[in-house]
Design a protein that fits this description.
single chain; mainly beta; Jelly Rolls; about 0% helix
Length: about 170
Amino acid sequence: MSTALTGSSNITISLQNKKAIDLSTVLESLSVNYGVTWSYGAGANAANILYHDTVTITDGSNATLNLKDSGSLEDAFGLALTLTAIKLLYLKNTSSDATLKVFGGVSLDLLIVPATSDIVDVHPGGCFFWVCPTAAGVDVTTNKNLYLVHDGTGSSSMDVDVVILGLD
C-alpha cells in the first residue's frame, strides 16, 4: 500500500448567459468551484487507499465491486485492497448510447444513497461524482458492494471508469 497518497478532487462550473436587450447585451456569469485537498492518513480530508479501473459491462449485465473483502480489488501496485470507509466515488459512463444504473439491486449496497433500493441513472457520456471528506467517511464494513448495471439498451457493452478513494 502507498504511504504517500495526496492530491485533490475538484469541480468547476463556469457558465455565461447572454441576452441582447435593445442596444446592449446583458451578460450573466456563473462560477462555482468545489474542491478537496487530500492528504495521506485517516482524518478529515485524508485517505490511504486509491482504487481505479475501467469496468466493462455487457448488454443487460451487471458488475459488483466488493470494497471490503480482501482480494476483490487491487491497487495500481497489485496489492489487495480492503476498505473500511469510502470518501470519494467517481463513475464515468463512456457509452454513447446506454445508461449505467448504479446502486439499488443487491443486498449490502453502499449507503451513499438513502436506501439500498435507490438507483442512480448515469446517462450516456455522464458521470457521478460523490465526496465525503469527513474523518469517518462512509462505513463499508457491512454495506460494501458497488452495484453497476448496463440498462440493456444501445451498444452490446459499456465501459465505466471507476475511481474510489477511502480508508483501510
